[in-house]
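User: Hi! I have a protein structure encoded as tokens and I'd like to know what sequence might fold into it. I'm fairly new to this, so please keep things simple.
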């Protein structure tokens, strides 16, 4: 069925751009609609905005069914946030109403779209040859999502463009070769092929839609998809964070970036086999009553082999530390993670809360002797957490896949905690902390013009989302951060951490050596 939409004077193919069109079986005998014209419609056209030219749909019933099908594509559905005709695999379009936590202006939405588009076209995924990530998309959307003004969006972009590497050239032969995914192994894990994977996934999404492409390449459970899924959790969860912003803001171009970023990350045999083996052990030896995340963290802390497995001198504390020196013990702990499908929503909130609470207590591990500092690696596990709330809302992702992805996230949280030296998590220390920045959500605005690469405002935004998600569970035993007072301390702690003297973050909060890197960390 050839379907074209005319918006103003621009001729577009909504099937191609949206990737959401499905022809009802009842219409299979009608093979062509020459033109669909959207008449004076806004962002989300409806049946009343559609006119059909030279339409061969001869019965009122089929015409109504067809219009209803088109309406299902184009009508905004809050839970799923369907893609708009302006957001394509090649074009980023952020709408002011798609902001998440705060209201935003048309001007801010235009500016965010403009900056993200420029980044898409001009910059490489890594800003150096050591694989350090370009964080511009995260920074801009975290600012936009917390209500930052246009000036802050532009300032944040300007601060982080000077050191970005330009986009690398594409290789047309590689893009063609990727049409058979069996050939992908020759290119996976190689950053020079990022532009090839990006164009490949842009074309795939344009042809099949984001849902189908994500299902095929990440969620289908095939060996090839599992290989990509392991890469999604690599790189300190950066590909997962990129996917989060693409899904949450319904941007197929950012989803394509996330898939391309996933493809060029290395699925180290140790990490991939750890995730798959822990999953297999969990299914085989399903614990009768799974331990809470807090209990599993305590198990790691109290285990001599696990708490000392990573050394401060290790280049990669997961690969060279925990998985090299205490793999069996770590597998035993990770295999105890088992989430019933019936408790998916609450388990998601608990994962999010526990990641934030762990990071907050770890930031105060040496307080008051030293200034509070969040651990650079633990914050990524907080910053990635909102994606699971978004995934839970997507009815095209099977429930078993949602559970699987959440279990993998919890296992990665536990592994990262061990890799950071299993810092002591002192109960009550957060309750006694008095932030210099003040208490309350309003202190987050102090991060709008903070000159970093976006990690600070991302962490604050994640904490805001966490609070919103966890409000439903304040009567649960696992909920520790609750009430205006304690949440206010968390927001103040985040701001204090980056405004205090010394580096913005500590790297390896469980190692005393990490706190000695800069004398400024001492109070």
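Assistant: Happy to help. Inverse folding works backwards from shape to sequence: for each of the 523 positions I chose a residue that suits the local structure. Here it is:
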């Amino acid at each position: 069925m050839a379907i074209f939409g005319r918006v103003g004077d621009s001729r577009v193919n909504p099937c191609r751009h949206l990737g959401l069109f499905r022809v009802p079986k009842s219409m299979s005998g009608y093979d062509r609609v020459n033109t669909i014209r959207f008449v004076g419609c806004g962002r989300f056209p409806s049946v009343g905005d559609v006119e059909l030219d030279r339409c061969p749909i001869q019965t009122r019933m089929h015409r109504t069914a067809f219009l209803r099908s088109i309406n299902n594509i184009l009508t905004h559905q809050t839970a799923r946030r369907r893609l708009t005709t302006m957001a394509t695999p090649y074009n980023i379009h952020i709408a002011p109403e798609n902001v998440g936590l705060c209201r935003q202006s048309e001007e801010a939405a235009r500016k965010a779209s403009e900056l993200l588009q420029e980044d898409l076209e001009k910059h490489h995924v890594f800003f150096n040859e050591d694989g350090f990530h370009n964080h511009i998309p995260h920074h801009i959307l975290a600012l936009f999502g917390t209500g930052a003004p246009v000036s802050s969006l532009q300032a944040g972009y300007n601060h982080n463009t000077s050191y970005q590497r330009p986009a690398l050239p594409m290789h047309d032969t590689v893009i063609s070769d990727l049409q058979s995914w069996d050939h992908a192994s020759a290119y996976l894990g190689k950053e020079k092929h990022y532009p090839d994977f990006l164009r490949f996934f842009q074309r795939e999404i344009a042809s099949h839609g984001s849902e189908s492409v994500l299902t095929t390449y990440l969620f289908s459970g095939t060996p090839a998809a599992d290989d990509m899924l392991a890469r999604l959790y690599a790189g300190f969860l950066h590909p997962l964070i990129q996917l989060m912003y693409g899904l949450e803001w319904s941007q197929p171009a950012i989803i394509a970036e996330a898939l391309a970023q996933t493809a060029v990350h290395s699925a180290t045999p140790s990490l991939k086999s750890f995730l798959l083996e822990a999953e297999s052990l969990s299914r085989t030896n399903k614990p009768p009553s799974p331990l809470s995340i807090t209990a599993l963290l305590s198990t790691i802390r109290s285990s001599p082999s696990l708490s000392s497995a990573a050394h401060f001198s290790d280049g990669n504390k997961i690969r060279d530390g925990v998985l090299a020196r205490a793999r069996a013990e770590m597998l035993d702990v990770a295999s105890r993670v088992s989430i019933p499908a019936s408790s998916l929503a609450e388990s998601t909130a608990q994962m999010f809360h526990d990641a934030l609470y762990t990071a907050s207590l770890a930031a105060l591990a040496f307080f008051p002797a030293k200034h509070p500092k969040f651990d650079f690696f633990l914050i990524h596990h907080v910053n990635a957490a909102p994606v699971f709330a978004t995934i839970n809302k997507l009815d095209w992702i099977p429930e078993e896949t949602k559970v699987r992805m959440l279990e993998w996230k919890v296992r990665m949280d536990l592994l990262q905690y061990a890799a950071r030296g299993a810092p002591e998590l002192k109960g009550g220390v957060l309750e006694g902390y008095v932030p210099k920045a003040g208490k309350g959500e309003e202190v987050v605005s102090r991060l709008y013009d903070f000159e970093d690469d976006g990690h600070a405002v991302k962490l604050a935004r994640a904490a805001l989302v966490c609070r919103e998600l966890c409000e439903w569970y304040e009567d649960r035993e696992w909920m520790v951060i609750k009430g205006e007072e304690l949440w206010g301390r968390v927001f103040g702690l985040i701001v204090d951490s980056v405004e205090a003297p010394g580096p913005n973050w500590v790297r390896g909060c469980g190692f005393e050596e990490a706190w000695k890197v800069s004398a400024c960390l001492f109070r």
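A useful reference point when you look it over: Residues 399-419 form the longest helix (21 residues). Feel free to ask if any position seems puzzling.
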